[in-house]
Amino acid sequence: MKSIKIAAAGGVLALALTACSGGGAGSSSGEDGAAAEPSDLTIGVAMPTETSERWIADGDAVKSQLEEAGYTVDLQYAADDIPTQAQQIDQMITKGADLLIVASIDGTALANQLQAAADQGIPVIAYDRLINGTENVDFYVTFDNYNVGVQQATSLLVGLGVLNADGSEAGAAGPFNIELFAGSLDDNNAHFFFRGAMDTLQPYIDNGTLVVKSGQTEIEQVATLRWLQETAQKRMEDLLTSTYADGSKVDGVLSPYDGISRGIITALQNAGYGDTIEAGLPIVSGQDAEIASVKLIQDGVQFSTIFKDTRKLAEQAVVSAQAFLEGDEPEANNTEDYDNGVKVVPSYLLESDIVYADNIQSLLIDSGYWTEEEVAAGQAD
């Protein structure tokens, strides 16, 4: 990833670390009461996989911003393997990490590791994926994931002509055949995305504007294990065979992630729906503004994606980490919605944007997230 993507989005990294009152968990004060220097502190960063552009960008952004602030960073990717991630976190603790930032593969699988962290006074920040079933997660930085689902569903409705981009009614009455996809059930975010999407779509299903022809409307029926593109493509192929062999057509597909979207699109293209929306390809949503999908949106193949600026998320993780290491509590803007089954985790939520073909320039290129050349090529430099 280019340096522009991993640079701080603001001036947060110029914040000076100052001595703070109190010791104990999360305090960086030395034995003499003076604040420890950032260079004396190590932050373990556990990311799920390097198979997704998004997580590579997140890892690079978090590591870069922490190092710019002076910290030593131990960044590990776990290849979407739960035991590997657990082992990596164990090693971070053993090697003396002062704080952990964890984007979990399975939000329920790290209770032992987090207990070990708590026993040693190591604060834990859950990064974009809530860690469930433990009291030992201290803070959560993420996007407003329910609203991401609302945005995904809204973009689907815009593509079908039911809504205008500003959310007003556009007049198309349908009925439109749609199918639903969700993320991995072991990812807490997948449930927020799906709930937001279904709350938005349900009124149009109820009034007959939208028809889920397969009848598969429960998250357990439509989930995609590990968010895998190949799994989504296979399910879309099966839906076309089982539900649309009568000559009926799919008009739109709710997809929660760009990799899943590309799998869905491949299945539809292989089934003869055409190469572009103009040629008959259904409306397909997405998420993460991956460069391959941004290119597809520009070319009229995928309709939309959700842009979650990972630079801002990384920045907020750094701000939160600094607060803990100074002996303070990070600022939360949500203390009600993110219940992990044991406690409500104080959280900081960021906002996201819907990307359509006509705002790629303003949202992604002008902000420096992707360059015009990268979008044209469909790959990062």
From TrEMBL:
Q: What is the lineage of its organism?
A: Bacteria, Bacillati, Actinomycetota, Actinomycetes, Micrococcales
Q: What is the residue range of the signal peptide feature?
A: 1-21
Subcellular compartments: Cell envelope
| Gene3D superfamilies according to UniProt | 3.40.50.2300
Major place of localization?
A: other
The name this protein carries in UniProt is Sugar ABC transporter substrate-binding protein
A cellular component term from Gene Ontology for this protein is:
outer membrane-bounded periplasmic space
Q: Which PANTHER family match?
A: D-XYLOSE-BINDING PERIPLASMIC PROTEIN
Q: Which PROSITE patterns match?
A: PROKAR_LIPOPROTEIN
Question: Domain named Periplasmic binding protein: which ranges?
Answer: 43-328
Q: What keywords are assigned to this protein?
A: Signal
Q: Which GO terms describe its molecular function?
A: carbohydrate binding
